[in-house]
Structures are given as structure tokens and as C-alpha cells.
Prior knowledge:
The complex is a heterodimer. By secondary structure, chain A is an all-alpha fold. Chain A has one domain. Chain A has helices spanning 2-14, 25-30, 35-64, 73-95, 97-103, 114-125, 130-159, 170-185, 190-194. In chain A, helix 1 runs parallel beside helix 7 (130-159) and helix 6 packs antiparallel against helix 7. The longest helix of chain A is centred in the first third of the chain and has 30 residues, at 35-64. Chain B has nine helices and two strands; from the N terminus they run H-H-H-H-H-H-H-E-E-H-H. The radius of gyration of chain B is 18 Å and the shape is globular. Chain B has one domain (3-216). Chains A and B meet through helix 2, helix 3, helix 4, helix 6 and helix 8 of A and helix 2, helix 4, helix 8 and helix 9 of B.
Amino acid sequence: MKEMMIILVSAIFVDNFVLSKFLGICPFLGVSKKIDSAVGMSLAVIFVMLMATVVTYPIYTILLVPFGLEYLKIVAFILIIALFVQLVEIVLQRFVPPLYQSLGIYLPLITTNCAVLGVTLLNIDKEYDFLQSVVNALGGGLGFMLALILFSGVRQRLQDAEIPQFFKGMPATLIAASIVSVSFVGFNGVVEGLFQ
Amino acid sequence: MGYLKTLTNGILKENPVLVLMLGMCPSLAVTTVAKSGIGMGIATTFVLLGSNIVISLIKNLIPKAVRLPSFIVIIAGFVTMVGFLVEAYAPQLNKDLGIFLPLIVVNCIILARAEIFASQNGTVKSILDALGMGIGFTLALFLMGSVRELIGSGTWLGMTVTKELVEPMKFFVTPAGGFFTLGIIIAVVNFLTHKKPSEKNGCHGCPSADACAKVSE
């Protein structure tokens, strides 16, 4: 249990997927203008990250490892994620229309989100077991959500700010992201402090 | 567009990182030292070259509906090859790039060039486009890495430069320094080119730009 908490807390705060691992920067910069779209996108990402982990982990351990095909994991994982996202889109559209209307538009953005492929590959790299992988995916997704929601608040302030012409748009956004990222440095050592 | 223009397009006018704002994740993550920036750039250029050649050759055989999955599989194949090559011949680089080496698959530069250029142009032009974009990406990463390594560690390409003269500013090798450096470099590029800041947050070269814009409305 303690081990699970360590994985969860470090994935959310200490090694935040967006702000310290640089996974999923595109949606972080592209979909953080408003809080509601930030929340919608993060929920979709959390769901896909969890499910992608649940699906790819058994495929890796049951199908690829016994036959010595570990090197196929990139091709296999990205295909599974692409297929899975498509499938979720169809199932939601057919059976849960309200959910599709709120989350459906985010799904096409998720296949090429490196946080999703990243978490499945990281789980294998770190040799997590199934449960640890799921917890890591959950933490990664929650960390993504935290970063996006925090940043969308900053972005709204930024829109009204007077800044030099050539800093407008991406440069100002990146520098704001830098300041948000600095605040996460404060979580260094939290894991050691909490769980020892 | 002429052949020479196709080649130089990616290096200056449409530099993938500094102008099109594509491939931000690796640009921020692997540029704490200049050397791994170059390594990442070369690995990406190789994948870009392979995928552009193959896609421009078989573009008429791929049905429109399954275009993107097919592109992704082709790209993933080349990334696996690069992974093997780097692991065998540059084990240190393999360690430095870590997870970002397999993640070249989801680098939007490659998918964007497949979608926008290789699936609509001949093989020769696609090769030039891939080389131009690859060189542009490598140069941008090299620039990022140089700035961060010089200020953050006082070295450049592993050689000691200002380390003994002034205390290195550790901030620049932290993740926050990555965001900061890229922001400043893009601002300088905007200043030098007098580019008007784009309304759409500069995502226009990205294959997911439409979906992203729809979400942000």
C-alpha cells in the first residue's frame, strides 16, 4: 500500500508528467485556455491512459515477452492506443451520447498525445507489475489534470496582461509555464518526507 | 515550390520548433546538454526521411479512411529501427534520450509532414522536405541545448567554458528552465522576423490543430 502511495504521489507532484517529464506539452499549451476544456481534456486523458495501461500491459507480458518480441512494443502499443481511442469514440457515440458530447471532441487529440504512449512505455521500463502500472497511469493522468487546471487559471490572467508584441502568444505562454513549473520544484523531497 | 526552396523551407521559414511550434516535448526534454539535442535531431531526421520516402512511394495505395493509422505504423517501424541502431552504436545517447527515443513515434513533426507534404508530393521533393525539416529541428534543438548547457552548467558540448569564471545558473537545466529558454528563443525569433503573433496560438502546422481549435472555442 505504501509503495502504491509513493508511486501515486510522485507521479502527480514530484515527477509531474507535464511540468517535469515534458509529456503531453501540445495539449497542455493548446487546450488550456479555458477551465472547462482543460477539465474535459484531462478527464479524457485520464480515462485513455488508464485503459491503455490495462490493455497494453497484458499484451506485453502475455504476447510479446514469451515469444521474444519485446522490440515490437512501440508498433504494438501505438496501434493498440489508436484502435482503442477509435473504439471508445464509437462506443460512446452509440451508447452514452451525453458523455460523447462532452468528451468526444477531445478523443482525436489523444492518439498522438505522448503522455499516453509515454506512460505505457515507462511502466515497462520501470518494471512495474500490473497494479503498480495502473496506479502510475492514474497518477500521471491526475498530474496532467492538475497541471492543466492550474495553467488554465494562469492563462486567463495572461490574456489581459500588457506584454511586448513579440512576446505575445507562445513565448509568454511558455514563460508562464516555466513559472508554474518552478512551483512544482517545491514538491522535491515530499515523498521521502511523507513515507519514511 | 522549387527544389532548393523545399529544402530551405524547413530550416528557416517554417522551422518546425521555432515557427511551427511542433515537437515541443523532445525540444524541452532532451536539451539540457547540446550533445543530446543533436542526437535527438539526427534520430528524428532519420525517421522523418524514412517515413517521408515510404509514404510518398505508397501514397496512392493507402485508402483515405485508414491513412493516419497506416502512417503511424510506418513511422513506428522506422522508430524501432532507429532504436536498435542507437542502442547498438550510441549506448550513451540511448541512455540520455531515454523514453523520448521511442516517443519519436508521436512527434507531431513527422505525422504533420506525412500528412501535409509526403502524401501529396513526389519522392524527391519529400526527401528534400524531410532533410530540411530534420536539419531545422536539429538546429533548433542544438541552439536550445547550447543555451541551456552554457548557462546552466557552464560547459558547451562537454567542454568547460565559463564554469570556473562564473557560478552556473542551475535553473536553466531544470524543467522550468527549459520552458523559459524556449519562450525567450521564440520571442527573439519573433523580434528578428517581425512576425505578427498568430491568433491561433501558433498551432497551425500541427495535424491536430483543427481538433484543438474546436476544443478551445
